[in-house]
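Why predict the complex rather than its parts? Because the way molecules touch one another can change local conformation, and only a joint prediction can capture that. The input here totals 486 residues.
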Amino acid sequence: MPFDGVEWSQPVFIPPYAYHAHAPLTAEVLSAGFINAYVAARRNGRRVHEQVAPFFGRSSTEGDFPQWHTATSLVPVADGYAWAQADWTHARAFVVYRAITVVDAIAYHRLVATDGSNTATGTTTEQAIATNGQLFGSPQTGHVGPTAETAGNVNGGLFGSWAEVALETLTLDQTIHLQLEGYAGVLGSGYYRFQWAAIYLEARG
Amino acid sequence: MDLSVIEIAQRYGALDDTAAGAGDFVHAHVLRELARQSHRLVQRGEYLTHQVWNVDGTDAEAPGVMIFSASPSWSRVLGPIPVMRKPHLRTARMYLRARITVDTVVLVQIVTRAHAFRADLRSSTASPNVIALAGTGDWEDYIATGIALGSDDIEVIEVWATADATSNHMDTATYGSPNNGTPDFITQGELRLTGATWDMTALNAAYGAVTVQLLNGDGVVFAPPRPFVCAGTELLRIGNPALYWTPDEVRAGNNPAATFELLEVPSVRMAAFKLREQDGY
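Output of the joint prediction:
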């Protein structure tokens, strides 16, 4: 997962017997070792938080619980704490959410990090929620509560988005607080339900 | 030591801290050790997703609780979960802690980029990504290995679940007898069996938790499971006209060889779900 956009293909496979203590130490084994070390180093994202909201597939009473919200501005939907070494430069969140809107709408997400005294606020990302179902994952069938996740349903769907924040204004080498915020809607018409998120720390540059 | 025995460093720290000092020569042992450690780093599996839920209290729907009924058809219960991963590790290990209705079997299907969702799979032998979970009515740990993963550095994981209709006969101690047999007759919305001792109170209190399906003389299901109300100790009634048996199903169901089965819909409450890449060699 090279977050800086540079792909380094797959690691080189070394037959384990090639570096057996009694096997000849060949140049191929060494170069493969270096390549693998480089590949491992390029995978520089580290997941530091994962959060999931439960749902009830048994009845439609899901709507009775305060997991849906109709806020018209960003509200916290997931948060956690992570130790951040000074080498990390960014935090990036992937989020899966459900949304119901009566018209084409926008879902907004933002990641905010704080070290206790300084706060870094990421740029708010926007994702268009098309009424024809810009869906994520396999098509759902059957009854799943108040949101029927079918492609033709204008009233609900499951979506994936992201948000990130630069950590340069924070004092690192300590525990930081990461908070993901989100909401959906245009003119206050959207219903938003957080489903799942993961936050990664990464070192860029 | 044998050349055929796979050797992977089990931990770091095999070299002392002066082994690769600046300006020093590096001998073959150090190089070999460095190569082996980098290889280990690449081959070690990492966790893909780890989700936990409230395990307190009864199996009621409440905030923080993850619970669902495994229906006769596949339903997605977790995900999609996008995760970054090591693309060359192609199998995963599942750890699931769940409480499932006693004497029922639930199939789960782990959808990955190596295994697209398939609605037709009804058996855990069909794919390493389909796993059968036998319910005991108590918290159990379910572990499966060899789950196929794709070869991309992003994986999108989904978990689907369904009841294994071949093994989930209704509990006769709770709901009365029998849970299968040859009906006296059926109509569009009724099934009668003389001599049955179905418990109206228990069955109707659990409406939807027990379903009825019809099978032909060869044991093939021709009318898939439907919920019903118990209208008498010998009479079941399908309350929803949309679910009435069709005229053809009624004709087939009145064939003397036809049988019915009463199936319990498993309730699944999850405490934890974890997928982890399995180590390479």
